[in-house]
Amino acid sequence: MFAVNLLKELEHVDEYWSPRVVGQVNDQFIKVAKLKGSFVWHKHDEEDELFYIVKGCLVIEYEDEHITLREGDFHVVPRGAMHNPVAEDECWIALIESTTTKHTGDIVVDKTRSIEQQLGER
Amino acid sequence: MFAVNLLKELEHVDEYWSPRVVGQVNDQFIKVAKLKGSFVWHKHDEEDELFYIVKGCLVIEYEDEHITLREGDFHVVPRGAMHNPVAEDECWIALIESTTTKHTGDIVVDKTRSIEQQLGER
């Protein structure tokens, strides 16, 4: 039995856009990530994805709108929705997503991390 | 599309031990709750339950140990484990649990809230 502190876990992250699995509840992984810049447009056909802001500010771009998230906010990207996270300045987040969710959906780019990479970096 | 701020949601909670559903990601509800005092020993046979501390301090008692959680910590109570949350002072938390999870497992006490009550208070 142990506690996980989101801030402390994030202090160990040294690469942007590279989520690290720090826990699991039922069929969902809890991950932490540092973000800076623009990610990549993608979607997850079968899975929602929750963004929670630990520090900083994040914009989730959608095709016809965008939403700005600040510290203590969470937002759920609905399954099937094309989206692109953009952090003007460094942003620290936690993610909740299904254990089956692929990092960049059905596309693969330089930033794409496999689930093995996300698990292995602990 | 909207953001939910955990602190702001918690400011609206006026009853201890009465979780309020503030979001859903896949098959999991996101809830907020204010806690004070000792809850009740119970378990969830089929579901894990995640506690995240927004403000204050919470002890999760198990039959043979206990774990102390502070602001920014999360902890997953494994399915099947008898546990009792205890907050010496007021504590503000978020919970992640399956949409099927019953508040106090298979027992019913005065503090027990139905899922309809947890949803209806929004």
Assembly category: homodimer
SS content category of chain A: mainly beta
Number of strands of chain A: 8
Q: Please state roughly what percent of the residues of chain A sit in beta strands, choosing from under 5%, 5-15%, 15-25%, 25-35%, 35-45% or over 45%.
A: over 45%
Low-confidence stretches of chain A: none
Could you please describe the fold and organization of this structure?
By secondary structure, the first copy, chain A, is mainly beta. Chain A has two helices and eight strands. The first copy, chain A, has helices spanning 6-11, 115-120, and strands at 4-5, 20-25, 28-38, 49-55, 57-62, 66-70, 73-77, 83-98. In chain A, strand 5 (57-62) and strand 6 form a beta hairpin. The longest helix of chain A has 6 residues, at 6-11. In chain A, 39% of the residues are buried.
Question: Quick summary of this structure?
Answer:
The structure is a homodimer of 122-residue chains. The first copy, chain A, is mainly β.
Write the layout of secondary structure elements.
The structure is a homodimer of 122-residue chains.
Chain A: E1 4-5, H1 6-11, E2 20-25, E3 28-38, E4 49-55, E5 57-62, E6 66-70, E7 73-77, E8 83-98, H2 115-120
